[in-house]
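INFO  loader      accepted 1 record
INFO  loader      residues=201
INFO  predictor   begin
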Amino acid sequence: MGTRDAATSADGPAGTGTSGRRGAEASKAAIIRAARHLLARHAHGDITLKAVAERAGVSAPLVLKYFGNKDALFSHVMSFEADAPALLDAPLAELGRHMVRHLLTGQAERGTDPLLRIVFAPLHGERGDVLRADFRAQVVERLGERLTGADAGLRAELAVGMLIGLGVMYGVARGPRLREAAIADITDRYAPGVQALLTPG
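INFO  predictor   done
INFO  writer      dumping tokens
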């Protein structure tokens, strides 16, 4: 049985109970990863549900079953609501280190980081505006709300800008020395600059 058949059968009428739920969640996650991958490389209008399904290893009808249509799928993918909590999940005094490590680990282990979707907003026309608005509200402003002291919003934007720059160099430009270095070493070098923006003075 191929990957697509396995994913489909796990989620079809025969997929019941715990194993069925696990299969459904795995298929949804694969679809979201595939859509994110394609969004980072192609304009929204050029991406088909068939292409998403093929990359995810599922059938196109399964994509429709879970997400309804292409617009609903990409509205979900363009949101940062599901990703921001993990990025910000640390006490403020340790947050810079956590965010740097989280970004690098995502790149090293999964080949992607949800933050970097914002880099490709210009590809997507009006939908890029939605991506920018979601990013500002769900990531940057949420971070700013956690900060104390003057210019919290500006400092949040600068800190996130530092993260995006690191992510681009690591995951898009694929700097060889950066990718050869241990994540712990990069974190030791880079996190203090991020943390200085989060807890100045």
